[in-house]
Write a structure and sequence with these properties.
four-stranded antiparallel sheet; about 15% helix; globular
Length: about 350
């Protein structure tokens, strides 16, 4: 009986010891990979989320432009009216007004890729289908033509008003707006159908056009007046207000975020800074005589301007709101900035060429 009790007692002790060891192991396991580890992962994730929520997105670094250095000359034939960087930034599109041609250059090695003959004088262009199609206004023909930039040929046309000039494609590539100099209208084209859907009347001569980044609004320079016509794109292409912007506005561009519009005033020799949402003038920047085409850097820090009558290209610091320097460029008429913000392309009536400059920053 005693032996049995001793054996039972020993067995019970062994069993209790084993259970204790097992419970201890389970507790340790939970401490490293169970209850403690899972909250640790959640806590780490929450910490990352909280840190991200507490730290604002890093704004783009705005570089101060201190100079323009000549890089290359692209030769064309006679009177290049405008120069555009095609989508992707790999090709340069030049409308040679008096030669009745467009020239397409490689933006990396500056080699000539295509020459497309047209029936009339090309003024401005914009692009759909990621640059495959170019919409080009023809000065005397009352139409835009559609150029296949890969095939190097005209593949369509759409009637506009009299003497079409500016051509601007909406951010979603659905609409093409064309300002008609002699009929005081803007033609609205359905890009997919290649069909004009509206002739939008202006109270004066229309010229420059830009869209808001969202594409819900368009802004048209009434060069025969002193306003930007704001158009509700989604609301049937209706003018909803006239925004003051200075006398004789020629060209308009938007800041990268879309909150500000910059307008060149051809007669006044100024750049007007417009608060887009408020619809009011925020500042006026003196530049040169007869400022025409303008172009903004991708970081939104600098605006370049063709001071046509001065024969200069000006650099405007948009933080200080002042033209900081100019360089001599004979008869500058059109310009574009590379997507990287490192080069400026300027078309010149005479000599007939496109000058390429390195944008020098601090």
């Amino acid at each position: 009986m005693k032996r049995f009790n001793i054996e039972v007692l020993i067995g019970t002790l062994v069993l209790l010891l084993a259970c204790a060891l097992l419970l201890s192991a389970c507790g340790a396991s939970r401490g490293t990979s169970g209850q403690d580890s899972e909250p640790a992962v959640e806590t780490e994730g929450q910490a990352v989320e909280e840190a991200a929520a507490g730290v604002p997105e890093t704004p783009p670094v705005i570089k101060r432009v201190v100079g323009l250095e000549p890089l290359e000359i692209l030769q064309v034939e006679s009177g290049p009216k405008s120069v555009e960087l095609m989508p992707g930034g790999q090709r340069i599109f030049v409308n040679d007004l008096y030669a009745h041609k467009v020239f397409i250059f490689n933006a990396l090695d500056y080699g000539l890729e295509k020459t497309v003959a047209l029936s009339d004088e090309p003024v401005e262009a914009d692009f759909t289908e990621e640059g495959r199609l170019a919409w080009v206004s023809l000065y005397n023909s009352g139409k835009v033509v559609v150029v296949d930039t890969e095939a190097g040929e005209v593949v369509g046309e759409v009637a506009t008003g009299a003497m079409p000039k500016e051509v601007t494609v909406s951010p979603d590539s659905r609409w093409v707006y064309v300002s008609n100099w002699n009929s005081n209208t803007v033609t609205v084209i359905d890009a997919a159908r290649r069909e004009a859907v509206k002739q939008l009347p202006m109270y004066g001569t229309p010229r420059g056009i830009c869209f808001s980044p969202e594409g819900d609004r368009a802004y048209i320079c009434v060069m025969g007046g002193n306003t930007l016509a704001e158009v509700d794109v989604d609301g049937g292409h209706e003018i909803i207000r006239q925004i003051p912007c200075g006398t004789n506005p020629r060209h308009v561009v938007t800041s990268p975020g879309g909150e500000t519009l910059y307008v060149s005033n051809n007669v006044a020799g100024t750049i007007t800074v417009v608060d887009r949402l408020a619809g009011s003038i925020a500042a006026v920047i003196p530049v040169g005589n007869k400022p025409r085409t303008i172009a903004i850097t991708p970081d939104g820090g600098t605006l370049f301007v063709c001071n046509y009558d001065d024969g200069t290209v000006g650099s405007v610091d948009l933080r200080e709101l002042v033209q900081t320097f100019t360089i001599s460029v004979f008869r500058p008429i059109g310009m574009a900035v590379s997507a990287e913000g490192d080069r400026l392309f300027v078309s010149q009536y005479a000599p007939p060429q496109v000058a390429v400059f390195k944008i020098v920053t601090e």
